[in-house]
Design a protein that fits this description.
By secondary structure, the chain is an all-alpha fold. The longest helix has 27 residues.
């Protein structure tokens, strides 16, 4: 079990959201942030880096948005869906843009393929949690 899941299991009060869904979303957010950070770094090491500038930028943006979203939805005390909802929406949109850009480079760069996969997984997890919030 991930640390996110372990921490939610140890939470001393009832959770506002389904623990399994929240854990899956947190895991996807954290993994996507890491994948995007690694992909941006790998892009910067490629010989054709000028062709990857947009990918680097979107990966950095996506990593930041995913990390911020994970931090906010990890906090369950006095949970406010009105704060979490726009973050999850922004994260899903950012993951879509980043995933699309990474897919453009996936045939030539394995790190872009893996990042696109992480973005798609995170996008789905954010959208699933948004549906549960409605």
């Amino acid at each position: 079990m991930s640390y996110a899941g372990q921490m939610l299991d140890a939470y001393p009060r009832d959770l506002s959201l389904d623990a399994r869904m929240l854990t899956a979303t947190l895991d996807a957010l954290i993994e996507c942030a890491q994948a995007c950070t690694s992909d941006a770094d790998a892009d910067l090491s490629e010989r054709n880096v000028a062709e990857l500038v947009k990918c680097v930028r979107l990966c950095m943006d996506c990593a930041d948005v995913c990390a911020a979203t994970a931090r906010v939805i990890s906090r369950q005390t006095s949970y406010d869906a009105n704060v979490a909802r726009p973050l999850l929406e922004a994260c899903a949109a950012t993951c879509t843009s980043c995933g699309d850009e990474c897919e453009r480079h996936a045939r030539m760069h394995e790190h872009c393929r893996m990042c696109a996969e992480a973005c798609r997984r995170c996008e789905r997890a954010c959208r699933d949690l948004l549906t549960a919030l409605r």
